[in-house]
Amino acid sequence: MEQNIIEKLINELTKLPGIGRKTAQRLAFFILTMSEEDAKGISKAISEVKEKARFCNECFNITENEVCDICSNTVRDRSKLCVVEEPCNILVIERSKCFNGLYHVLLGALSPIDGMTPEKLKIKELIRRVEKNSLQEIIIATNPNTKGEMTAQYIRDILKPYNIKVTRIAYGLPIGGDIEFADEVTLGKAIEGRREI
Fold first, then answer.
1. Is residue 112 left, alpha or beta, with left meaning phi > 0 and alpha meaning psi from -120 to 50?
2. How many CA atoms does the CB half-sphere of 132 hold within 13 Å?
3. pTM
């Protein structure tokens, strides 16, 4: 028996990460109430991103061109390179407006149990960038979890022979948070990463 159009839309929406059945239902009924122009705009944006999006030849960010806007921007600090796991991490860092260097996207994190070995990440390309550019600092901004820590340590170790400053983003308590609600690991990292005031 063929699904009705609403059920079909709900099933398609549940394929998105973080979208369960109830959220998919709400979204489907919201889409129904949208203007035809807005709904077609969403559809067109999805089609365009699937047709035109590609990885930057330099950093592996998402772009429509061979080289992304960040890599081609001559005003950015070319002595600093921030290493992230996924292109979406760049968006978050860029919104903070506190980093003006370049990026390198690994397209994942080390996880031998999941088959994510160094060969499957863009680590060889990172080494090539270190060898051909006059970088002064590599900032590792992988996620603060087991995979991210393993990846950060691996990168630190393979970059040792290049005599380049390798740093790791700090992590700890969120601004506006209460210490009593922090877990032990987060609080421990906050104490480890303390600085003089």
1. alpha
2. 7
3. 0.80
Q: DSSP secondary structure string, the chain?
A: -PPPHHHHHHHHHTTSTT--HHHHHHHHHHHHHS-HHHHHHHHHHHHHHHHH-EE-TTT--EESSSS-HHHH-TTS-TTEEEEESSHHHHHHHHHHT---SEEEE-SS--BGGGTB-GGGTTHHHHHHHHHHS--SEEEE---SSHHHHHHHHHHHHHHGGGT-EEEE----PPTT--GGG--HHHHHHHHHT----
What digits encode the pLDDT tens for the residues 166-181? 999 887 777 777 777 7
C-alpha 44: how far from chain center: 24
pLDDT greater than 90 at residue 94: yes
How far lies 73's CA from each of 21, 39, 56, 155, in Å?
42, 34, 13, 26
Tell me the C-alpha distance between 119 and 129, whole Å.
16
Matching residue, tokens 């051909």: 132
Domains parsed from the chain with CATH numbers: 5-52 (1.10.8.420), 75-168 (3.40.1360.10)
Q: What is the pLDDT of residue 176?
A: 75
Task: Give 23's contacts (C-beta < 8 A, 6+ positions apart).
Answer: 13
